[in-house]
Write a structure and sequence with these properties.
The chain has 290 residues and is of the alpha+beta class. The protein is 64% helix and 10% strand. It has a four-stranded antiparallel sheet with strand order 2-3-1-4, with helices on one face. Helix 1 packs across helix 4 (80-100) and helix 2 packs parallel to helix 7.
């Protein structure tokens, strides 16, 4: 019970660190590169940037206020954990954008460089938030809500459609086709960096463990390492010796710990580590997002 409480507290602390780091990167993108150059990021941030240009309202606060109705609507639909994380992440990013706006320098000398660095920073910031199971609200939640009614629609395509609608406001406000094109560059780069952050830093792994100490290894994985495992009866093709093969999905940062404990039980254990793109199930994602 005490270990569970410590683990939960640690998770919350890590969540906060990731939201703060993600918010700082996203704020750099908004305040230094995209907004000063009239380049929109898409989503509610893009809509807030338009309102900032027209009415001189703070971008961060506007983003959060635009999200409030979606938070209320989606509270029952997606569960407490998801909404609490999303509200926390959205608030962190919104606050950091507004708090840093007066102090950050702006870069307006080269729009292409602004679009490139704006996309990289926004993608890295959002990627850190997504790694902790949250979103930044806006079109993400709106797409999730619409998909409940129209499940045949792709969430990714709906998000892209909403982003394009917001980007179209850029032409109406700034009267510049160039800004629209740069905004598309930002959205594309941001999407690529989000994928890189998520897959590059959190690839899940699949372990196949062939060992003579099957029962002990199962107890070690389930009780000490706190991870589920499946057991298959196998037979060596050369020696014809019966053994157990353990099948276990783990996080990338758990691989070293798992292999070390298994090697402690059986130094001759044969371990295959395979990289996989995603896992659905207990301890990982519970449902597909698409």
């Amino acid at each position: 019970m005490k270990q569970a409480a410590i683990r939960k507290t640690t998770d919350i602390f890590i969540d906060i660190l990731f939201y703060a780091a993600g918010g700082a990167l996203y704020a750099l993108s908004v305040n230094m590169f995209t907004t000063p150059n009239g380049i929109l990021l898409g989503g509610f941030t893009g809509a807030a940037a338009v309102l900032h240009t027209l009415l001189d309202v703070p971008i961060g606060a506007t983003v959060f206020l635009l999200n409030v109705p979606l938070f209320l609507i989606s509270f029952r639909k997606f569960g407490t954990s998801f909404i609490v994380k999303t509200v926390a992440a959205t608030f962190a990013i919104s606050a950091i954008i507004d708090l840093t706006a007066p102090f950050l320098p702006v870069y307006t000398e080269d729009k292409l460089l602004s679009a490139l660095f704006g996309g990289i920073l926004s993608g890295a910031g959002l990627g850190l938030v997504f790694l902790r199971g949250a979103t930044t609200g806006g079109t993400d939640i709106l797409s999730k809500l619409l998909r409940l009614r129209f499940p045949q629609l792709s969430m990714g395509r709906m998000i892209l459609l909403f982003d394009l609608l917001v980007i179209s406001l850029s032409f109406a406000v700034y009267r510049s086709l160039e800004n629209v094109l740069y905004a598309l560059v930002v959205i594309y780069i941001s999407a690529q960096v989000i994928d890189l952050v998520q897959t590059g830093f959190s690839h899940d792994k699949l372990l196949f463990i062939v060992t003579d100490q099957g029962e002990r290894a199962v107890r070690e994985i389930t009780e000490t390492l706190d991870r589920g495992v499946s057991v298959l009866d196998v037979r060596g093709g050369y020696t014809d010796t019966p053994r157990k093969m353990l099948f276990c999905a783990v996080r990338a940062n758990d691989v070293a710990r798992f292999t070390k404990r298994i090697r402690t039980l059986d130094e001759n254990a044969f371990i295959v580590i395979s990289e996989i793109s995603d896992i659905l199930g207990e301890g990982f994602r519970q449902k597909s997002e698409f």
